[in-house]
Amino acid sequence: MTIARRVLVRGALLMAGLAASGCGGASASGATQDPTTPSSGSGARSQPLPTEGPLTQSCDPKDNHHEVSEYDTSGDDKPDVRKVFLRVGEGALARLVLICRESDLNADGRKDVVRYYTDEGRPLREEADRNFDGKMDELTFFQEGQILRQEFDTEGDGKVDTKVFFDAGKPLRAERDLKARSTAERWQPDRWEYYEDGRVVRMGTDLDGDGKVDRWDRDSALLRRESDLSQTPAATDPA
């Protein structure tokens, strides 16, 4: 049986939106720019991922300008999706704007994905628990409705160790902290990966911890294609 329940609630909605930083560093084209050059991407403050307990933002509205809807999408008579709407406008112009969505993906009663939206209904930020251990291990930041940056805790220690930056919704580069040197105040990656068509084509690694690339690796298939193109004779006019 599908559950669709809508209730009015009271109080102020806590929306402490985080500002998403842009993509900096070297370009994906292969330029050997020093990846440690300060930029909004690699030099930005890196906040720890939320652990157990309250999220950094709240999906709990508390005034009559908001409405909550819960749905059972799995058919087990238990709501697994919860949406919070903001009522904007008056009279005939009144409408509901989605500002928060929670999902329980594995039916354990805990929210696994929480997406926050702006007051205009555009995606702002998403927190996800991909391994279902009760801790958020993936953050996604949006700008103008497109993914701007993703941050991951791949070690499960509550700290960001990987960042992926996007351009026009496509992955541009990844930064990884393999030695776990980063803090909340300072992001210290030691590997930089650059993407073309969704795959890594170039990778730089800092071997001695000085923040500079000591070794560059290139995709062998890409190198072969570039070599083949350079050896192809130019077409001549048969006339």
Question: What do you see in this structure?
Answer:
This protein is mainly beta. The protein folds into two domains: 1-15 and 55-136; 138-230. It is built from one helix and 13 strands, in the order E-E-E-E-E-E-E-E-E-E-E-E-E-H. The protein has one helix at residues 220-231; strands spanning 4-8, 66-71, 81-88, 95-103, 113-117, 123-128, 138-143, 146-152, 162-167, 170-176, 191-196, 199-205, 215-218. The chain has a 13-stranded antiparallel sheet. Strand 11 and strand 12 form a beta hairpin. 26% of the residues are buried. The model is unreliable at 1-56 (pLDDT under 50).
Descriptive tags:
1 helix; 239 residues; 13-stranded antiparallel sheet; elongated
Strand portion: 25-35%
- Mean of residue pLDDT? 76
Overall 3D geometry? Answer: elongated
Integer-rounded radius of gyration: 23 Å
Main β-sheet, spatial strand arrangement: 1-2-3-4-5-6-7-8-9-10-11-12-13
- Parts with pLDDT < 50 across at least 5 consecutive residues: 1-56
User: Distance N terminus to C terminus?
Assistant: 76 Å
- What is the count of distinct domains? 2
